[in-house]
Fold this protein.
Amino acid sequence: MENELKEYWKKQEIEAKKFKLNAEDLANLYDLFYMITWQDYLILELNKMEGWFQKFFFRMEKIVTPELARN
């Protein structure tokens, strides 16, 4: 089981290195955040992902709209 998990993470690292976003991808992903409704946010809360969502959004904001970024 442990070897399978190590193999899984190794494959994930290889695939992650291939993943890159261009400027248009970043802008589209940032726009997607504004399409999230309060109902969608409730689902994030139920799955205990709202913290991750907030942090990711703020990281994206610093890149896409640095003049609006919160500290």
